[in-house]
Design a protein that fits this description.
- This protein has 299 residues and is mainly alpha-helical.
- The protein has a domain at 54-258: MFS general substrate transporter like domains (Growth Hormone, Chain: A, Up-down Bundle), CATH 1.20.1250.
- It is elongated.
- Helix content is 67%, strand content 2%.
- 34% of the residues are buried.
- The longest helix has 38 residues, at 235-272.
- It has a two-stranded antiparallel ribbon.
- It contains twelve helices and two strands; from the N terminus they run H-H-H-H-E-E-H-H-H-H-H-H-H-H.
Amino acid sequence: MIAIVAYWFISNYPGTVSWLSKEERAFVQARLKADSDATNDEKFSWAEVRVAAKDIKIWLYALAFHTMSLPLYTLSLFLVSQPLCTTECVKYPCLTVRKPTIIRDMGYSSAQSQLLTIPPYAVATIFTIFWAILSERYARRALFILTTSTVAIIGYIILLANTDPKARPGVSYVGTFFAAIGIYPSVALILCWPAINVSGQTKRATANAMQISIGNLGAVLGTQLYRANSGPRYVLGHSFALGYSCLNLVVVGALLVVLKKENKEKERILLEKPDTRGFHDTVEDLALGDRHPRWKFQA
């Protein structure tokens, strides 16, 4: 319902917004034009979809999210809750109590356990905002993703290394902090990466769609790994999450190499042809999208 209503309120371009003054529309248009191709009224083209499908970078963006979506969507499966049947749950299934599996073993009541699930997410939220601002300030993506993904790896190593979570639930609780602080900033930066780097609009829309579709397959797999009978250590689930986090380092590292290589090639072209037109100078230049020599990728 919200989407249907929103359709009539969301404008396609700043130039068509009725609630901005003429000067404000001109300012927003100029700022967007200097930053990207967002003001280009590009028509949908199947040819550009095929260009996106043939671009190895698009697949790497998708795999980067895929390798983080599994730990992203499964973190709550072992931290937030696990069904615990009450004496009446057989007769009344709706009475099933849910308590955090790690925090439950620390000896707290159900209400206290639910409250203690907040700190890992709260810390991860604050750190994600800080990390995103820092990444934007330095115009770097790969280094920041590699750093936080490594933090997530440390978290899962802690979780797997704790051979007796019931006796030492605090160790596992610390591990969830590392995992959350590592997962959420990485996911945020990975999801915005193609939005920043891919041009034109049809190719970028295709890249975003491929990233979400391929990425979420990791979540589908992850939900089958954390089974009630595998707790409290969840060796299978944690091992997959650890492996996927390590694979994320490989994918992001490969993407970094590809982006740097293409940037270097564009710099070579500009040195040989310093009179190369600007990205927005002509329709032909805009049609090149991120293949234009003056389009620099954020790596």
